Amino acid sequence: MSAVLQMESVFVFVLGIIVGSFLNVVAYRVPRGESVVAPRSSCPSCHTVLRSVELVPILSWLCLGGRCRHCGSTIPVRYPILELVTGALWVATLWWIPNWPARVAWAVFWVLLVAVAGTDLTSMRVPNILSLPGAALAVGLSGVCGVHGWGQTLLGAVVGAGVLFAIHLLSRGSMGLGDVKLYLSIGAMLGPLYAMESLVMASLSGVMVGYGLRMSGLMKKREPMPFVPHIVIGVVVIAFFGHPLTEWYLHNLLATGV
Fold first, then answer.
1. The pTM is what?
2. Domain endpoint, select from 96, 129, 144
3. Residue 161 domain boundaries
């Protein structure tokens, strides 16, 4: 790795975790109909306004031991996780995506996914104020920045949302409409084939994690589970490893060429 790429990676990671810190605010406040700009961040338990040193991404949570320094209440581990995931995805985009316009498109898309994963974790909701403008932005950026051609972008959005909507109808609402709207963005960025592959990966992740949580007693039998984090896992796997996985499947399981 060149020295320039190393410096770019550090800069992108730091910027990513700062953005991730803001996404934590979005995830907590948007489902509650609160402003993400004001008032200043405070402890949800004791309502003490937090100082700047208590808001340093990842480090503050580690130094505080995951607890509020004023009242001792637990700070959910999702805070440093969302920050770390945002920074890591931005660095991975820098490494994997060859040109800057496409990198910008993917960086914006990751912000949308992490924000929605956060709202799903905090409230089991995918707010329209995030999913619908995010879909328009993803379609526009995918086409303009050359992630896909316009035809593939629009087809991906239609196929992604269409398949999820069919599942929504067949499952009688078990698959929420919020996930359907989110797949407009995912289909636009991944294209129709990879969008469907990401759904398969998300389902596998959801089944394995859900089964593990129920077997361990951490989740009741019919207790609902946020699905968007599993969608994010599926999208990340396919975005960075979709082609090798498809080749492996075709060559090793179907014994055909690509």
1. 0.91
2. 96
3. 101-258
